[in-house]
Amino acid sequence: MSLLGPLIMAGVGIMAVYLSIEEHEDQKILVVDENHPVFTSLKSTSLIEFDVQNIELDQGLDLLNSSDYTALLHIYKDYYKIHAGALYFKKQPSFRVQSQIERAVQLQGELLKLSEFDISESDYRRIKTPFIMQAFKYDAASESSEETSNLPAVVGIVFSILVYMFIFMYSVQVMRGVIEEKTNRIVEVIISSVTPIQLMLGKIIGIAGVGLTQFLIWVTLSLSLFGIGQSIVFAQYDASSLASNTNMTAEIAQEMDKELAEKTIRMSNDNNILNQIARVNFPLMIGLFIFYFIGGYLLYSAMMAAVGSAVDNDTDTQQFILPITFPLLLSYIASFVIFNNPNSSIAVWLSIIPFTSPVTMLVRVAFGIESSDLWQVWLSMGLLIATFITMVWISSKIYRTGILMYGKKASFREFIKWIKY
Amino acid sequence: MSDIHVNNVGKAFGDFVALDNVSISVPSQSIFGLLGPNGAGKTTLIRIITGITGPDSGTVLFGKNHTTLGYLPEERGLYKKMKVWEQAIYLTQLKGFTSNEAKDLLKPWFEKLKMSEWLNKEIEALSKGMQQRLQFAITVAPNPDVLILDEPFSGFDPVNAEEIKREILALNENGTTVILSTHNMNSVEELCSHVALLNRGEVVVNDSLQNVKNEHKESHFSITFSGSQVAFANLLGPNYEVLKMSENGNQVLALIKAYEGAQPMKLLSVLSNSFNILKFEEQLPTMNDLFISMVTNPSSSDE
Q1: Are the beta carbons of B94 and A190 separated by less than 8 Å?
Q2: Which of A20, A416, B19, B161 fits a 20 to 30 Å CA distance from B59?
Q3: Residue-wise pLDDT tens digits, A15-62
Q4: If interface means Cβ-Cβ distance under 8 Å, which residues of chain B face chain A?
Q5: How far is it, in rounded angstroms, from Cα A421 to Cα A402?
Q6: ipTM metric
Q7: For residue A182, what is the nearest residue in chain B, using CA coordinates?
Q8: What number of other Cβ atoms are within 10 A of residue A255's Cβ?
Q9: What's the predicted TM-score (pTM) here?
Q10: What's the distance, CA B241 to chain centroid?
Q11: Residues 6 or more apart from A382 whose CB is under 8 A from it?
């Protein structure tokens, strides 16, 4: 499963990306233009073949039914006042196709209007100037600028989701293991050879090992598979299509200052998703992930072990799982809020409180932490360590009593009693 | 071999007093029966002796330094999906043995109890009896000084139970002290040299089996003879009372009670002059009877 998992995940991921880029739908669209002959020269695109016919809508719909047209585009009359239309499709086209249609019609409409204002097409292209903006972090202390973008933050969210998943999954596994040993009574046999605390910690550490190993396998396999997939799939995603995205034709590029042109093209290349991902500080993120995963996992699995020892079967655990994992869930939901404002007070608090910090601190770090705020990271890490040590101590007291007790209805009051034993 | 001294041990769980000033001595190389009704505190006491739980007060002292214990709990399970041989080695390793040492200790027991065929089977593939044999083997393989068995015979058919009894006796002869906690009074009669009875957390009896029986004997005699019941009764005299008399074919079975001043041997010679005596035996109380009487009538028990 450890090997199969990342293979499946990477496979699914690549398939999804590949399929979204590589559209195999060739659209053949019948265009009924109420403004005929305005759109007769509607330019076909890589995916769409436009066939402009001078017919009525009803005729067109019949034709749509009977022939191999994939859709019918109906452009309403009075285009320059209303500029609206409808698409009747046999099979739902993707958003990409739909936006291509919109752009084609819009472009055509604009080009035709140019002559009214006596503007040439090349002038028009110069007027259309999409503004490419890159964000730099300016550190007043060092007076240096650091390139930054939103993508690393998304990576941070991915890591925090992973932390949430892993902590949840593996601490529940600890609980299940504890219950299994209790219900099949092997605990009575083992407990005569080792102390309850050794048993509890052994289980927690063992499962942590499984979790970390699985995570490392996933990361390495996923990254290498993704890298391989990327070079195959994204080879088609080359500079020329990127240039067309910025509407920069070769001749305009010539007119610009060469250096500036290169820089602009590079910037738009850099905005390419994969290059941005490559800029994320992976060693730091992975290191922090491991720290927060271990810390959060130890904290939650200790609690889960205590719960498992107190109940007699799986179903009794339900009443405890929700209250215990609630902070995790809360931080998972909050991470999307924090994504928008990583330095808000809620973000700061959640990243310091040990029950929510594993998930939220990763998001904040992905955004970048000011050096003046670094103390928050240290505080968060220190608190996490202190809290999980305390929790392990408390849980071991509950565990060593609960593990041999059957039939008692477990409740928080019982727990307090057992802690005092 | 080792002896065990439990001194004034007390244990309470919240308001519930599980053990109240319990003191027992387990002589070295004895087979010690730990008896008592459910909830009497036997398992708690055993857990304190094995160190699983700590007492609130009192001490447990072992005669020999580093006494090793083997404990077979009443509720005993194994990891269902693990293979038999792996499980046995793992549990033995937990006691501190290396993998090879464990194999050497376990092999002879696997052969003795005829378990060699299922080394690679998963635990859940075994029947209950087989699992119990496995657990017994794992408990005794490390050759502990003291063996504590809690209801070892439950789940065994008579043939298997007999085999386990033989092994227990053999181990005992080799020097192992055995503590046997059970409701199976027959096994107590057959195996135990000493007994202690716990009831509601208190020690009711703690002595050798012989002494316990002798102290509670009620001077009952069982006589089997052929002849007239009436004539028999007449011969008895005032010092005896007939408790029961029944006919069995051409024999009569009588149960009589002897009072103070009676001389049973004299009675025997008198009776044998008139009757054909087939059996004349002092009825010592069975452990079953003693258990019931001591547990249901606490005021008549002695410490």
Answers
A1: yes
A2: A416
A3: 776 666 655 567 888 888 888 777 888 878 777 888 888 888 888 888
A4: 13-14, 47, 50-53, 69, 71, 73, 75-80, 91, 94-95, 135, 138
A5: 11
A6: 0.74
A7: B77
A8: 9
A9: 0.69
A10: 33
A11: none
